[in-house]
Prior knowledge:
heterodimer, A: alpha/beta, 6-stranded mixed sheet, 4-stranded antiparallel sheet, globular, B: mainly alpha, two-stranded antiparallel ribbon
Amino acid sequence: MKDDNKNPMLKVDKVDTFYGPIQALRGVSIHIDKGEIVSIIGANGAGKSTLLNTIFANPPASSGDIIYKGENIVKEKTPIIAKKGISLVPEGRRIFPAMTVEENLYIGCIHLPENEVPAVLDSVYEMFPLLKERSKQRGGTLSGGEQQMLAIGRALMSNPEFILLDEPSLGLAPLIVKRIFDKLTEIAKKGITILLVEQNATLALKLADRAYVLANGEISLQGTGKELLSNKAVKAAYLGG
Amino acid sequence: MDLHIFIQQLVNGLVLGSVYGLIAIGYTMVYGIIGMINFAHGDVYMVSAYLSAIAIALLSIFGIASAPFIIFVVLIFTIIITSCYGWTIERVAYRPLRGSTRLAPLISAIGMSLFLQNYVQLSQGASTQGVPNLIKGNLRIGEGNDFVQITYAQGFIVISAIFGMLILNFIIQKTSMGRQCRATQQDRTMAGLLGINTDRIISTVFVLGSAMAALAGVLVTLNYGTFDFYIGFITGVKAFTAAVLGGIGSLPGAILGGIVLGMSESLFSGFINTDYKDVFAFCLLVLILIFRPSGILGKPEVEKV
């Protein structure tokens, strides 16, 4: 395990988040180092998605700090955070259905200098050749797996250093899920740091360098992917015995 | 039924419809992006009529008599100042209420509408105002008493309206700003997560809508020459009807709805009864809402995942 003294890519420190009167996160602290793949697993309603959304100030944390590359972003607004080189692939993909694939991708890079756009677009098309084939098709006409690839492609368009993924396997056939996870490995190889939230714990732990288990809004366990895969409590609760 | 009267009424309807369409764009864009009916939009149109008259008066003080130059300057001046009104209205009356109940901005819009009417009445007087006719002459097609007459002012309205809509369409479809508008309309939260400043996009939509209303205001003022502080109400309601008719939230729908409404209104008044033309317009709306609730081009509310 890498130690905390190094300057991490992202450090979430004792964060509390509320939805109205309901507390969704209780003193959550995690850190992600540059180049790592970190997974967060947990049951439905444990606060996994909330944690990702809190990093994006949507909703903002009510207390605690979120330090991105040494800068405290806990008080920043969502669009400002998005400009800092963090990208989100949200739960349920949330592509823009009435816009073409290409337009969806262009929306991902509104803060990129114009002369860098063609190169980034090419690299996304290289990673997802299917998106190039369908570039003029409306996003809503794509299949679930294709939409997921579009959502990942859109997140990559801002040339991010750090990408957050919320349940990329949601509602997809196992074969497609495998293809998506292969792409994540490919993305990590490019040096992009990944924070992955998943219900599919086996896959997530296999992919991850390190992982956290979130239960009832608190971090209950942490360790390397391998450690957690063989951990009895994790096995019983999340890996189906 | 005389053919020349029929064609004449179609021409008149097209002119009226283009004006409705231009104003309907403002309703439909604002509804599309924040799901709110901006009841003050008709009064923004009214303000633009006054602004164009002020611009014409200022130019005549400086002794400028060239009609094309006057029209050009009046258009630019009115569109810019009216856009500022639209921006300010959103900033003052709607943005502070974002995130509150759905009805709050609606009430605020009605208040803003009353405010604008009274503000113009107090500052400009309650009497009907007028401007000189700048575009003279007409084109007659046909012989004897059976002719179709198109005034150059009418032609100017239709051509300018088409031109304005083409520019708007270009902005919405082809520019990065337009893409951001559409993204914000489809999923505001996601747009924010991608770094789009959605508050600024909403302001932009108000500015674009007001600019279209300003274009309509100038065109109507140039064609009819008279207006008062109350014209925003009935024209606004008609344009809103056009937006609903075409399918609220849809840009082509607003234009189509405007033209359908304008043509049916003028055909009705040409062949049946002038006094009941408004009744007919609203009956048409009721019928369309019964048989096609989402309007001519509107899509039923898409379920979001």
